[in-house]
């Protein structure tokens, strides 16, 4: 059985561990304090390591699941001679390489908040020290909590906007539509549920078909009908350009924060 050790056991580590098959993976955690680590381990049904050193020695793969600013001190204090996975937002493979030896196998992973319901859309990349079998194992770990996309590292910033930040924009869209439902006389909770279900089913429809989104828009828009009136109104109010601007602002902010 593959042993996975998580250094840091907060929200994201707990979400990942909740999705992992405990019969397939031997999982342990090591947090900031032993007392809290033991409580978290008990809740998650896994083992608490007595120390980071014990965890590193007994793991095949180590996942760094602490906030990015904590990582340099951990990598300075501990020699992690195992494949190392980082889920730290904004921390590149080069940043991690600067903190480790030249032989360190490094995998950078970016899950999103939907990991909490085992539906993360996750980006993954690796340095040249990572074997194909280790990469396949780490990919399988993150497939336990959703879908995984191997990316060129240069695309991580864009991925972070499209998958990491976009849930916020999607919630804004859902809220705007349900508010419109309220304007036209429907209770907010009913309206929100209807819109959320429609967004979910529309995404499923798109993923299950070979059609591109605009063809699906055309399919719903009958000539002279109600839907095309709304489509034209969205276009007149710069819907597409507004969304693209929001993603560009997110990508630009990510770049500025990484420099
Ligand atoms: N949350 C997300 O949606 C999301 C998405 C993608 C990536 N990420 C990345 O995931 C990582 C973890 O984020 P999170 O949201 O899970 O944060 P979190 O809930 O704050 O978890 C971080 C954990 O690290 C622990 N910790 C602090 N110092 C430590 C140390 N020296 N050794 C071991 N553990 C230590 C903290 O313990 P204390 O609370 O006791 O300090 C806390 O339990 C971050 O790098 C973040 O960028 C998060």
TrEMBL record:
Substrates-to-products reaction catalysed: L-proline + NADP(+) = (S)-1-pyrroline-5-carboxylate + NADPH + 2 H(+); L-proline + NAD(+) = (S)-1-pyrroline-5-carboxylate + NADH + 2 H(+)
UniProt function note: Catalyzes the reduction of 1-pyrroline-5-carboxylate (PCA) to L-proline.
Enzyme class at the top of the EC tree: oxidoreductase
Keyword DNA damage: no
Descriptive protein name: Pyrroline-5-carboxylate reductase
Protein localization: Cytoplasm
Entries under Gene3D superfamilies matching the protein: NAD(P)-binding Rossmann-like Domain, ProC C-terminal domain-like
């Amino acid at each position: 059985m593959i042993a996975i050790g998580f250094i840091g056991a907060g929200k994201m580590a707990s979400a990942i561990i909740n999705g992992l098959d405990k019969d397939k993976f031997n999982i342990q955690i090591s947090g900031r304090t032993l007392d809290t680590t033991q409580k978290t381990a008990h809740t998650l049904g896994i083992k608490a390591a007595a120390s980071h050193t014990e965890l590193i020695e007994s793991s095949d793969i180590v996942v760094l699941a602490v906030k990015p600013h904590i990582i340099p001190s951990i990598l300075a204090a501990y020699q992690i001679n195992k494949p190392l996975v980082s889920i730290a937002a904004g921390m590149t493979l080069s940043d991690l390489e600067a903190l480790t030896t030249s032989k360190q196998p490094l995998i950078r992973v970016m899950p999103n908040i939907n990991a909490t319901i085992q539906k993360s859309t996750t980006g993954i990349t690796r340095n040249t020290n990572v074997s194909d079998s280790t990469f396949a194992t780490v990919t399988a770990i993150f497939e336990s909590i959703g879908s995984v996309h191997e990316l060129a590292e240069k695309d991580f910033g864009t991925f972070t906007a499209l998958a990491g930040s976009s849930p916020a924009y999607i919630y804004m869209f859902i809220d705007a539509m349900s508010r419109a439902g309220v304007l036209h006389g429907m209770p907010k909770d009913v309206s929100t549920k209807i819109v959320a279900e429609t967004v979910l089913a529309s995404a499923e429809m798109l993923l299950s078909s070979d059609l591109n989104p605009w063809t699906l828009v055309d399919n719903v828009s009958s000539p002279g009908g109600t839907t095309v009136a709304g489509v034209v109104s969205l276009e007149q109010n710069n819907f597409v350009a507004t969304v693209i601007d929001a993603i560009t602002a997110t990508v630009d902010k990510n770049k500025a924060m990484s420099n």
